[in-house]
Every structure is written in C-alpha cells, then in structure tokens.
Amino acid sequence: MKMQISDQDRAQVLVQALPYIQKYAGKTIVVKYGGNAMINEELKNAVMSDIVLMQLVGINVVLVHGGGPEISAMLKKIGKVSKFIKGMRYTDEETMEIVQQVLAGKVNKQLVQHLEQQSGRAMGLCGLDGGMLKADKLISGEEDLGLVGEIREVNTTIIENATAAGYIPVIATVAGGYHGEVYNVNADIAAAQIATKLGALKLILMTDVRGLLRDKDDEESIIPVVNVSEVPKLQRQGIISGGMIPKIDCCVEAVRQGVERAHIIDGRIPHSILIELFSDEGIGTMLY
C-alpha cells in the first residue's frame, strides 16, 4: 500500500533536506553496506536509490561492502562448513578462493549493476586494485584465523580517481599481502580506514540492529548520540558488548583520526541512509 503524500509535505521534506544537501555537497561519505539490506531485494533497491541520490546532489559516495551470507551459501554448495572464531570467519586457502570469487566477483559486480540500473555510475573495485588495501596476517591471541588480514596500508588514489571521473567506487574488502598473499579483511574495519584516509566527513555502518541500545532486548532504548570519550564507560557497563564492540571500535578510531561523524544505522529500515543524512531527527547511533 503506497502512502499518499501531499505536495505540501513533499515540499516540506525538500526544504528540510536543503541545508544538509548544501553541507554535504562536494564532501566524501563512506557507507559500509552489509547485513539484511544486502539480502532483501526491497531493501537493496532502497539502498541503491539512496546512494544514487547522494551522488546526484554532489556527494562523493564510497560504498564498501561485505557479503558474509553469500560466502556461507557458496561454501555450503561445495560442502564446506563455515567456521567462525570470535565472530571472524576462519579462512583457509579454499575458503579464501571462494571469498575472493564471491566478494570481488559476484557481489561486487551485482552492486555495480544495481547502481547502474538506478541511473547511477559505478565502478567495482577490490582492495587488490591499485594496491588499495595492504595487509599482514591477523594474529589474534592463541587462535589462528588462517588468511584473515590486518590492514597495514590504505592507498586511496584509485578511489579518488574513480570519484573524480564521476563514478561511485564499490569496494570489496579483499586485501593484498606483501608477498603475493590474498587476505580476507573485516569490512567494517576496512570502511573505517578508507574513510579516515579519504578525510571523509562521515562514516555510515549499516547493520541489522537499531543502533547502540541501552538495553539489548529493548529496541526503543536506542542511544542516539555518543561522544567517543563515553565509550570506555559504556563498555564497562556492558552496554557495548558482543558484535557491537568491533563496530563501535571502528567508529571511535575513525572519529579520532579526523572523520567528523560516524553512524551505526539500521539497514532493515528502508531509506535509513537518507533519514540519517537529510532529516533533523536522524536515525541510529551517531558517534562524534
């Protein structure tokens, strides 16, 4: 059922969006795209149209994506069980091949095609292109995660060239090692480091939760704004826990390194990016 919006309301929406459009024109915003919004077609279309709209109003959008569910589905097809250690995918050589094929091939090019269908101009890239992401093997305590990488260098030349030529760079988070290895890297961390190196105004992480919740079982208990100085206290209180820890850490790191604002938003809500960017209320949790 389509909601009827009066012309008056429509005009009001545009008036409210105008100062934001003026503020963001010519600035860089990095969006990490993942979770349910990647699987559900309606949500996917909403995200793609949001990104094309951002490009049309003069924002330099950089889209960084994961593809966990797609990788798991492909591994299942070849009879391989996905193994996770502390939320990170254990990546042996066979898994790495699949990760590279699915992320840098299938998922990346599908997203480019989606953007092009919405009349956007997009260019698919991965961390191997132009030496964009350089990584060493991630050493995480006692656990061996296989070919999971820790990013050491970000070279943004190819991203900036794509943007300058009028394309939306769509980046798959596969990184190159220093001796010919290929590593699987965490997409949130990659997005945060790319945002930092680009001097982005904003970093937006799309997830499957409303944002940071004061009570994890109550979606209404969202904390809309967090100063990075409050984060250690929120961690001690157990409010930042589980899968939210690495996301918040990425945001804190990006803000400390000069990104003005970092946002964790709910990708399950259609057009959540536009609500965050162009309305007074915003959505999700903002770190500054």
Helical content band: 25-40%
Helix-strand makeup class: alpha/beta
Based on CA inertia axes, which overall geometry fits? globular
Q: How large, in whole angstroms, is the Cα Rg?
A: 19 Å
Distance from first to last alpha carbon: 38 Å
Q: What's the total count of β strands?
A: 14
Q: What is the strand arrangement across the widest sheet?
A: 5-8-2-1-11-13-14-12
Task: Report what the structure shows.
This protein has 288 residues and is of the alpha/beta class. The radius of gyration is 19 Å and the shape is globular. The strands form 4 sheets. An 8-stranded mixed beta sheet has the order 5-8-2-1-11-13-14-12, with helices on both faces. It has a two-stranded antiparallel ribbon with strand order 3-4. It is 40% helix and 21% strand. It contains 9 helices and 14 strands. It starts with 6 loop residues before the first helix and ends with a strand.
A few lines on this structure:
With 288 residues, the chain is an alpha/beta fold.
Keywords:
two-stranded antiparallel sheet; globular; alpha/beta; eight-stranded mixed sheet; single chain; 9 helices; 21% strand; 288 residues
